[in-house]
Amino acid sequence: MLRLKGMVAVITGGASGMGRDTALLFAREGAAVVVGDVNDAAGGALAGEVAAVGGQLVYQHCDVAVERDVAGLVATAESRFGRLDTIFNNAGIEQPVTPSTDVSEALFDRVIDTNLKGTFFGCKHALPALLRNGGGTIVNNSSVSAFANVGGNLSYAASKGGIMSMTRVIAIEYADRNIRCNAINPGVIDTDMNRRNKALAADPDAVEQKWRSITPMGRMGTGNEIGEAVLFLASAQSSFITGIGLVIDGGRIAT
Ligand code: NAI
């Protein structure tokens, strides 16, 4: 049985990484998916890939730091598929490892605008659509960086901590209106973001070894493992869960 049959989902940052894997999983499980991203070539290719196997996925350009783009994504879900059941606010960028006193205002603004303000816009514009739908779910992509860090990622950690606080506020405000809002806190996941992080290091192999050593399971997670957790929080399987951060980190923050 398809686990998301008939559901309508919006996924930001869905052209690559865990957003892409989640979009593919959602489409396989019967959802109609609207993906927004700034990487139009990869987004268009994803839409073609899903169409080729009979799935429903629309790609639309969306810079999550631009409010009208995010509003447009939600509007497309309603105009093309009749409603919105769930949004995965996933789009995010890394902060290259930088001593905290060397973080420029421009770098801080770029990370906060994409990760935190982008998630705010996603929640702000999804909520009225979810109310029109009689309820639904929001899943925000935070990180273990909201709790555990190795240093040098000040703006990223601040953005991810902010997402946790925002998630709890929305969960409380909408708990009696059939809208649940949760976050996920991935550990080290094998995506382009971490490939970029590794490539910037003087010794990329040592970086990967470090990631494995801080993860009791000794490996990086996969995008599909994240997708399965997002599916759980997005669907009725998690019907009494709201306001949490679901840690998916191979045991990292248990240490
Ligand atoms: P990724 O780089 O593969 O995917 C991120 C996607 O977001 C890309 O398709 C990119 O084009 C898109 N994007 C970037 N800026 C955007 C903007 N302004 N508007 C719309 N789309 C934009 O990276 P990954 O790892 O899949 O990241 C997804 C989310 O997971 C991010 O929020 C990241 O912070 C979070 N995360 C990643 C972890 C990891 O280990 N890779 C760990 C914890 C959280």
**Low-confidence segments:** none
Q: Strands of the biggest beta sheet: in what spatial order?
A: 3-2-1-4-5-6-7
Number of strands: 7
How many H/I helical runs?
A: 8
In short:
With 255 residues, this protein is an alpha/beta fold.
Task: Explain what this protein looks like in three dimensions.
This protein is α/β, with parallel strands linked by helices. It has 8 helices and 7 strands, in the order βαβαβαβαβαβαααβ. The structure holds 1,4-dihydronicotinamide adenine dinucleotide (NAI). 1,4-dihydronicotinamide adenine dinucleotide (NAI) is lined by residues 12-13, 15-19, 37-39, 62-65, 90-93, 114-115, 118, 141, 143, 186, 188-189, 191-194.
